[in-house]
């Protein structure tokens, strides 16, 4: 039986062909494809309510906190909103925060992607720069071209989980984020860093598999990116 990997999703309202609003939960197919290709059974998780998180985790072996076009509300890391803060999705963040908190408590394997990496840092006590403009010397991290193509390199820390999983010392990644990690959480380490010093990967050495990457490996066609999802699925087999 393949490990069951939960994938968080977004919410949107579209107008149907009759002109009526049609609310729906959605997730990019690339997440589902990446989990399935790694040998897992992908399960999309609608954010119905934070109190449902425990019931969801009861049927899962691993978890992906997906990215999206929104920011973590700064109150989660003890700050007030500042200029540059983007759109907030309070209901989704509340659900994902509780889901991730419980998953880590159970040592369920987790992968945070882009905004999911930022939330992983926040859940464990770290902070974020609310916008790239707050960090002097930061390069371009919102690429203008197709995110299926890389934008810059990330140096991988020797001996890290990321290094063991990918077998790489440097990874070419895409870049679609306007927020970055400020203070890395106490129980995490930075395992990937861009040339400008931006933290691009974090991990929890004391967990079975707790990895966050600031890029979107599911849309990049290279073995080191597929290996990140394969590492999650392989670790999730141990929970069965």
Mind explaining what this structure looks like?
It is a single chain. It is built from six helices and 13 strands. Helices cover 25% and strands 24% of the residues. It has a single domain, classed as Class I glutamine amidotransferase (GATase) domain (Rossmann fold, 3-Layer(aba) Sandwich). The N and C termini lie close together (9 Å). It has 240 residues and is of the alpha/beta class. A hairpin with a 6-residue loop joins strand 12 and strand 13.
**Unreliable runs, pLDDT <50, ≥5 residues?**
none
Overall body shape:
globular
The count of DSSP E runs of length 2 or more, i.e. the number of strands, is 13
Termini, distance in Å? Answer: 9 Å
Corresponding CATH architecture:
3-Layer(aba) Sandwich
SS-based class: alpha/beta
Give the CATH topology.
Rossmann fold
Give the helices and strands as they follow along the chain: EEEHEHEHEHEEHEEEEEH
Strand order of the largest sheet: 4-1-5-6-13-12-11-8-9
Radius of gyration: 17 Å
Task: Name the CATH homologous superfamily.
Answer: Class I glutamine amidotransferase (GATase) domain
